[in-house]
Specification:
Length: 400
């Protein structure tokens, strides 16, 4: 009985997915269809009461990995949204948000430093709770401390069997925490992924963010922003702040200088964002407070130090995930900027996300198929460079 119910739910999920893809004007590619079927198979169980789930042993989740722009998040989110329609209690987490929430929860639960393990368990229980299906977007590990927390999350979900876990990632399991000095710390987590989750490689050779006419939906959030030359501000209804608008933003006892605060709009320079001691936690708080950002004086990425490069990459990641409308203002064309993105960890994801921007005006590079073809070429080079530079892997731990 449980098996028949499961199959029926799987087909319902796939029907919902097909309807949504058609509504968005997207034609599923063979690799995406295969991924959807596996995702639906694993997610279907989360829509059934525990007592009615199939008795045969199933994988506790899916690790969906592949290069940037292959539709991993889109595919997983469609399945999760469909499962929610069928009654599953779902939750979506992004890498930076998860770590921020987890650290806060651990702090609340840890009355004694010696009770760290108990505090982590209590924090995970608080974050995951009674969730049936958890989607963890951008699952990546570059820090030894993160490896510990993410392995504990895997134990709390796929090992316990209490929550089905779907992760999206640019990395196969063995590519997590690539720094050879610390990779062994992630090996227990890698083993859990291989043993307890379906591992799918979603790569049809196409970055769908770089394709023209991929969707008929009007850009919103991050994609509604653009890459501008300073003289093109007026073209999109933006007015540069006056010297009198300069101010500060205070967060957690720290004060940060900005060019202007205009209700939900934040203006700041590249230096104020990437060269100040700004953490991802503070970026997340700013993203919640200010739903439109204008970042000016963006230089070629290879002209600033590695710490500033990595902080800017994190910022783009957070702004895109939080759907903050973002305008990047630079004398450097977007094409030249992307070409300057070296083999920093996750630089390839930044390149792909900047390709989402709907507007490229002024001195920025040409729009259209030619511009997107160059984006694809730059992305391929950055991805290749990032995997060929072992020195960067060793330097990541030092940067943090």
């Amino acid at each position: 009985m449980g098996e028949r119910r499961h199959r029926r739910r799987q087909e319902q999920l796939l029907t919902f997915v097909a309807e949504q893809a058609t509504h968005q004007g997207i034609e599923l590619q063979p690799a995406q269809e295969l991924a959807m079927r596996t995702l639906a198979d694993v997610a279907a169980a989360s829509t059934l009461p525990h007592r009615r789930r199939p008795h045969r042993r199933r994988r506790g989740g899916v690790h969906l990995h592949g290069p940037a722009g292959r539709g991993k998040t889109w595919s997983a989110d469609l399945v999760v949204a469909s499962a929610e329609r069928l009654g599953a209690r779902v939750r979506r987490m992004h890498f930076h948000r998860f770590l921020d929430d987890l650290h806060r929860a651990v702090h609340r639960h840890r009355a004694d430093p010696r009770e760290h393990d108990r505090a982590v368990e209590a924090a995970l229980d608080e974050l995951v709770g009674e969730t049936d299906l958890l989607l963890f977007d951008e699952f990546h590990v570059h820090d030894a401390g993160d490896a510990h927390f993410l392995t504990r999350l895997l134990r709390r979900t796929v090992v316990s069997g209490r929550t089905t876990l779907i992760t999206t990632s640019n990395y196969p399991p063995e590519g997590l925490l690539p720094n050879p000095l610390w990779h062994h710390l992630m090996e227990p987590g890698i083993a859990l992924i291989r043993e307890r989750m379906e591992v799918l490689d979603l790569d049809d050779g196409v970055d769908h963010r770089l394709r023209e006419g991929e969707s008929s939906i009007r850009p919103e959030g991050f994609a509604a922003g653009g890459w501008l030359a300073p003289q093109a501000l007026a073209d999109v209804g933006l007015a540069a702040p006056t010297a009198g608008e300069a101010g500060v933003v205070r967060l957690g006892g720290h004060t940060f200088e900005v060019l202007a605060r205009r209700e939900a709009e934040l203006w700041l320079s590249f230096a104020q964002l990437a060269e100040a001691p700004l953490s991802t936690r503070e970026m997340l708080q700013w993203a919640e407070q200010f739903r439109s950002w204008v970042i000016v004086d963006v230089p070629r990425l290879d002209t600033v130090d590695e710490e500033a490069q990595q902080r800017f990459i994190h910022a783009v990641d957070i702004l895109a995930d939080q759907e903050v409308t973002t305008w990047f203002v630079s004398e450097v064309s977007r094409e030249r900027f992307l070409a300057s993105a070296g083999p920093r960890p996750d630089a390839f994801r930044m390149v792909s996300r900047l390709a989402l921007l709907a507007y490229r005006g002024g001195a920025a590079d040409a729009r259209g198929v030619g511009g997107r073809r160059r984006d694809a070429e730059v992305l391929q080079r950055v991805e290749t460079d990032g995997r060929r530079d072992p020195d960067h892997r060793r330097r990541v731990a030092e940067d943090r």
